[in-house]
Every structure is written in structure tokens, then in C-alpha cells.
Amino acid sequence: MTSARILPLFAAGFTLFIIIDLLRRHQLREKYAILWLFVSLAVLVIAVFPGVLSFGARLTGVQTPSNLLFFVAALVLLIVCVQLSWEVSRLEDETRALAEEVAILRLEAQNHRESHPPGPEE
Amino acid sequence: MAHPGVARAVAIVPALNERKSVGQVVAALLQEAPGVDVLVVDDGSTDGTGAAAASAGALVLTLPYNLGVGGAMRAGFKYALRNGYDAAVQVDADGQHDPAYVPVLLAKLEKAEIVIGARFAGEGEFEVGGARRGAMRVLAGVLSRAVGTPLSDVTSGFRACDRRAMTLFARHYPVEYLGDTVEALLIASRAGLRVEQVAVVMNPRLHGSSSQGSLRATLYLLRASIALSLAFIRRWPEDERERVVSAREPV
User: Fold this and answer.
1) pTM
2) Which pLDDT value is given to residue B246?
3) Which residue among A20, A121, B127, B169 has its CA within the 20 to 30 Å range from the CA of B177?
4) Residues B12-33: pLDDT tens digits?
5) Beta strands across the sheet bearing B87-90
């Protein structure tokens, strides 16, 4: 019984530690940290009180409690992946606009240099 | 003024590693389309395409990394708008597009906001593999209905745009593969722009070859269909139409 609780406890503790450490070192934006903190807290609660899972399974009509866990985990991961794809698309649009801007500015700077050649210093 | 109705025009040449042909294309454009500036958009080339274009007499936009044809064209349209050009013609850097048609496309801009230089439209012979040609016909049929003008060659990259079309495309030119040709037409017609075509003869490429074969053609049609379906269901901001219309006044 105790060994069955050590693994989830360890997993939750480890995730919490990593997230807090990344936050502390300014490596992770709050909007992502909140999600993972929430997930690791949920894992911690289930590890300490496995009854929560069985209760949830009875409530939703899922026969095996672990299947409820898998279902919810897969759903959360799916949502996170879609959200990240969205973020990447947005970032690509932003870097693309910057690249276009850089190219235009470079040509304009060059045109400017050619029309105003640096004169001899007084 | 070389072209009635068009005060200042620029030929935008997106180029990725086309050092061997870009110089010839630029020189031919300067000769065959007098009064039209040439802007080569170096799309992250690593073979000195930009330098070759500049020494042939083109303005060169150097993108810091590869953005694809769509991204290169957006940059070109932005530059053209900011520098007060009234029209732009997209010309491929591989020598397929005959610069002699540039003035023809520009002249037709009196009747529409976008003019496509189309193969299969009567003039000249252009051999394309059977399966690929079939795929192109299907696309042309669907798009002709959507746009409301009979178009025979919707994947042609040889196009002229006026200021209204440039205003739209500087922000919304599609950047996905094939989107730059097929989806762009749908975006334009949704924004209320008219599309016309002019028959052109295309040259064989100076270097490199176009992809052929029936498997590739099928893949091509599949990707084009995806691009097209997306274009049909995508939403566009309401104010876009007004922005484009308000750009009608010449600057």
C-alpha cells in the first residue's frame, strides 16, 4: 500500500520542484507555470487521498478509477498541445513580420547611405 | 510614362538560391520593361543571389532567413507601398516569366485589381505533365467559379497587383505552400477585388526543373485542395474590406 503511494507522491513533488525552480530563475512565464502547478497539485492530492479518484469514478460512471485518470490526463495534454501550437503560430507570424521589417529597413538604410555619402570630417 | 494609368510600377522577384539566373532575369526586366523598377527579395539565399541581383541593377531586399515565396512577397508589397509604388508585378527568378509581358499585365490593371499572366489561355505552347495539368484544371475550375471570372491558370505566379491589392496582400498574403497562388485569389475576391487574366507564353526555366509525375501531381492537388478549403472557411476581419477600399485613392 505504501509503495503504491510513493510513486505518485514522488512524481508530484518532482514536478512542483521543477516548476518552482524554473519560476524562481525567471525561466518560465506565469501563464504556463500556473497550469503545471495546478496539474502537479492535482497529482499530489490524488497521491495522498486515492479515495478522491474512486469517488470521481463513481460520480462519472467510469468503472475503473485509473481509466478516469488516463482520460483526464490525455485530455489535459491534448489541450496543452493545441494551445502551444497556437502560441507557436502566433510567434511565427510575429517573427515573420520582424524579418520583413528588417529587410526593408536594411534596404532603406543602404539607399540613405548611398544618397548621403559620409563627407570628410571637419 | 511607359504605361498609361500606372504611374510607378515595381517588379518584385522573390529569389531563393537563384544566383545563376537572377542576374539575367533582372537585366531582361530592366531592358524589356523600361520605367519599371526591379526589386529582388532575397529569401535567405546562401549562394550570393542578392549580390548577383544588385550587380545586375536591382534593388535588393535581404530577408534574414527563409520565409518562403509568400513571406518574400509580403515584404516586397510592404516596401512597394511605403515607397509609393502604384503597381507591382511578381516575376519568378528562374526565368520562366517573359519580362516582355510585364507592360501587358500592367496595362490590364485598368480593368482589374489583379491580373494573372496565364498559360493555357490561348497564346503559345506550354507542356505540363498530364496528371499535373489535370490537377491544375480542377483548381482553375473551382477558383473561376469562386472569383467570378474564367481563369485558366490559377497557379501562375506571374501577376500584377494595383495599390488596392497590394494593401491587402502586404498584410494577408498567404504564406503556406500553394497558398500564395491559389488562396491569394480567394482572399482578393472576398475583399471585393476584381481578377483578370492575360495570355502569356512561359519560357522553360533557365536552371532547375519543375516537379512532375502523377504521384507528385496527386500530392499537389491534395495540398492545393487543403489550401483552398481552408481559404473558403477562413474568416477575414470586417474592416479589411474598408481598408482596401480606402486605399483606392492614389497616394
Assistant:
1) 0.81
2) 58
3) B127
4) 999 999 998 999 999 999 999 9
5) B59-62, B36-42, B9-15, B87-90, B159-162, B114-118, B195-199
- Kindly list the residues from chain B whose CB atom is less than 8 angstroms away from the CB atom of residue A109: none
> Per-residue pLDDT for B49 more than 60?
yes
* Cell numbers given for A74: 490525455
If you write DSSP's letter for every residue of B126-192 in order, what string do you get?
Answer: ----HHHHHHHHHHHHHHHHHHTS--S-TT---EEEEHHHHHHHHHH---STTIIIIIHHHHHHHTT
Q: Find out whether B32 and B99 touch, Cβ atoms under 8 Å.
A: yes
The span from the CA of A17 to the CA of B167, in Å, is 51
Question: Read out DSSP for B48-104?
Answer: SHHHHHHHTT-EEEE-SS--HHHHHHHHHHHHHHHTT-SEEEE--TTS-S-GGGHHH
Which of A93, A96, A101, A106 should we substitute to test contact with B (largest number of B Cβ atoms within 10 Å)? A96
Secondary structure (3-state) at A67: helix
Instruction: At B164, list the grid cell.
Output: 488596392
Q: In this predicted structure, what is the pLDDT of residue B249?
A: 46
